[in-house]
Design a protein that fits this description.
This protein has helices at 5-11, 14-35, 51-54, 58-78, 82-86, 88-105, 125-141, 151-170, 174-178, 183-189, 194-212, 215-232, 234-265, 268-278, 289-300, 312-315, 327-359, 364-388, 406-424, and strands spanning 116-118, 121-123. By secondary structure, the chain is an all-alpha fold. It has one domain. A two-stranded antiparallel sheet has the order 1-2. Strand 1 and strand 2 (121-123) form a beta hairpin. Helix 2 packs antiparallel against helix 4 and helix 7 (125-141) packs parallel to helix 19 (406-424). It is globular, with a radius of gyration of 24 Å. The protein starts with a helix and ends in an 8-residue tail after the last helix. Keywords: Cell membrane, Cell shape, Cell wall biogenesis/degradation, Glycosyltransferase, Membrane, Peptidoglycan synthesis, Transferase, Transmembrane, Transmembrane helix. Its main location: membrane. It is a multi-pass membrane protein. One of its GO terms (biological process) is cell division.
Amino acid sequence: MPSSPARYSRSIDWVTVLLYAVMLGLGWLNVYAASYSPDAPAGGLFSGQSFAELMQYNWFKQILWIGTALVLIVVLVVVDYKAYDTFAFVLYGAMIALLIVTPFIARPIAGSRSWLELGPVRLQPAEFAKFITALAVSRYMASINLRHQNFRDQLVLAGLTLLPPLLIIAANETGQALVFAAFLLAYFREGMSPLILIILAAAAVILILALLVPKLWLVGAFTLILGGVFAFNTKVLRHHLPLALSVWAVVIGMVFGVDFFFNNVLQPHQRKRIEVLINPSADPLGVGWNVTQSKIAIGSGGLVGKGFLQGTQTKFDFVPEQSTDFIFCTVGEEWGWLGTTVVILLFMALLGRVLYVAERQKSVFGRTYGYCVASVIFFHFAINIGMTIGLAPVVGIPLPLFSYGGSSLWSFTTLLFILLAIDAYRKQDLVR
């Protein structure tokens, strides 16, 4: 442990801290813009209202969340960095227990039972499951070697990764569950076979194509490709025919099984979102309204935007959830193409810095955790922006450090500053 606060201060990666602060400040400005109404001047920043009255506004509550996040940062960096490794599994067990009881004690909000209410404060355990799972899988991966392809190790790792999202899905919060797929990128860095990623990517492509193209065409095309491989290489045919037939059977099952999954497993609103993604004009006044208005807002910003607090789509509530899931459309409308480009570049800089910090760790635990941090941030960033411009289904995933919400802010703050706390002591770690 550093012998003095000054030495510890020098060890903190201040570039990451600066990026965090800039993004947090810009995020608050856009939450304020999304909450601002020209018809309600009393909601202004210096309105002289009472505390209870100010608590009606998201921009004011976000100030409080930012204040608590700063306190959280102090706690995270003061705690002995070894505690994150030592108590990773204890935290994971407590988190699993919380996810199990949440659907039974939470009241339904927007169709899901995933929010715990503590007086005036609402917290979403699924948000905190991300960094706790990242700690647990990093701790486990520090004790194994994925390059050895040990089936038992991979099975345990899969269990640690899949259990939280399954419990989150049980609370009817599918969007947050999807984020856990991001951990695959960290596993790939630590030696997981690229074949697994290729298989999963191929499966995703097949499922998407099964929704877009006639099934018989898809089956025929795949059969011709597989047959062509064997026609040009009889050795492959002779040695791998059983495997090829098994793959063919699995693909056929997926192609014809996608309809059953779509119609019997997905909920009506989830089916509608996928239909709108495939055909934006399918339900323009219903499920497609959010995305349509979001694209109008972003497009209307032009090159430099309409100006701070001048966005009409935002001010007149054309875009639902404009300070949370659709905060990016506020950026696009008021700050234009230049503003959205700045936001995207900030995320790229943050991701690049996190990966740099991850690669300089002297322990497998620290490096794996760093890649988990980068993967989760990237998934949120890509899916959130994708859904605001119609390239991804609307799944309720916030934009890190920009979207309004205490659970999200605390989760990303914790995710990031645990890494910085580990990094500050990296020279004292032993390579495991």
